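Example record used in the benchmark description.
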Amino acid sequence: MLKTTVAIAATSEEAARSEGALKLGVEADEVAVEPIDEDTYNVSMVNAPGQFDIVILERKMVATLQIITPPLGNGKQVAVQDIEKALADLKVVYGIKKEVIENIVSEVAETGSPRENIQIATGEAARDGVDTRIEFKFRLNGEDPETIDISRKGGSLDAAAVSKEMVSAGDVLAIKIPPE
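Model output (structure tokens):
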């Protein structure tokens, strides 16, 4: 997150303003200076965009908006699109709670108060799938061809004793069933 405030040890308010602006990466006229004590000043940005930080808990398959802050002064509000882009950059594409994001962005904009620890995406555990398989539409000795093949390879069935079912041209011999 962008740092918006810094404590500076300086001999004067102007020296604190210059050094604080440099550390914050802005111009000297874009900061406010408040004395903390005789030699220490609190230097803060006058205008800063709203900010947010997303934390991913991979084991729990959860994305949490750790904090979302309103802008300072005339800074830009955090937009729903900003959060969605950050999620995409973090490779979070499933289980995004768009309505929660919209509501929290609106709430921070209306109240001007930061919010913390809001769950914005939840994944689902993977389910066991089914491998690709072949469903044969013909029979050998009245049984499935895979069963007969295993018997032949095991030596319990003579290859010459296998009777084959008649098929006609254009008949479907097998169907490939894709994985799930």
